[in-house]
Amino acid sequence: MLNNYPLLTIVIFIPLAACLLLLPLWSRASIAKPVAFGIAAVELVLAGWLYFSWQSLAGAPARLPGYLLLEDASWIPSFGIRYTLGLDGISLLMVMLTSFTFCGALAVSWNSIKERVVLFLTLMLIMEAGIMGVFLSLDLALFYLFWEIMLIPMFFLIGVWGHGRKIYSTIKFFLFTMFGSLLMLLAIIALHLLHAAQSGVVTFALHDLLHTQLPFNTQLWLFAAFFLAFAIKFPLFPLHTWLPDAHTDAPTAGSVVLAGLLLKTGSYGLIRFGYPLFPLAAQAFTPLFYTLALIGIFYASLVAFAQEDMKRLIAYSSIGHMGYVAIGIAAWDPVALSGSILQMANHGVTTGALFCLIGMLDERAHTRDIAAFGGLWGKIPLWSFFFLIFSLTSMGLPGLNSFVGEFLILAGTIKQSPLVVVLSFIGIILPLIYMVRLVQEVLFQKERQTLVLLDLDLREIAILAVLLLLDIWVGVHPAPLLDMIHLPVQLLIGGAP
Amino acid sequence: MTSSDMLALMPLMVLVGGSVLVLLAGAIKPGGYLYWLAGVLILAAMIWCLLIPVDAVMPGLAITSFSRFFELFLNSAGLIALLLASAYNRRRGITGEEYPATILFALAGMGVACAATDLLMIFLGLEAFTFAFYILVAIKRDSANGGEAGLKYLLNGTLSAAILAMGMALVYAAGGTIKLAELASASGAQEPIFLAGGCLILLGIAFKLSLVPAHLWTADVYQGAPAPVTALLSTASKGASLVALLLLLPLLAGWNGLHNILWLLALLSMLAGNLAALVQKNLKRMLAWSSVGQMGYIALALVAAPAGGSRASVFYMVIYVAAGLGAFGTISVLSDENERETVEDYRGMGYSNPLAGASLAVAMFSLAGIPPAAGFMAKFAVFSAALRGGEFTLALVGILSALVAVFFYLRVVVSLYMKPQAVPLETTRKPNSAEIVALLVPVIVIVILGIYPEPLLELLEKIMI
Question: Is the pLDDT of residue B442 over 90?
Answer without folding.
Answer: yes
